[in-house]
Write a structure and sequence with these properties.
Blueprint: H1 13-19, H2 23-49, H3 53-69, H4 73-87, H5 93-122
Amino acid sequence: MSEIPANTDFDLSFLYEIADGSDEFIVESIDMFTLQTPQLMQEIEQGITTQNWQAAGAAAHKLKPNMGFFGMLNLQSMMQEIESMCKSGAPEQSVLSQKLANAKTIVDSNLIKLAEIKAEKQG
């Protein structure tokens, strides 16, 4: 497997453990993550932009288990912070936007790396 770039945040040990040698399970899991995560990140961004804190917080909440499943503990923590800030009702929008931008940078790197892993598993 190729080396994981420094700006990624994941550990696939848990995924590999529950896959029990099934590359098909790994590929399906990566597919699900790559479909759901950008959509949920968009929902968070839209919620922040429109100050719909409930929607942004709910999307962050939905992302946390996905992040944990892929060993993205820093991102999981970031989603927890975003969710908590949204639940407070009147978060500092610029701080929230910056947290999301930081998370998005890491997610984008992870998506690229996961696509490479998926290609290796399919090949």
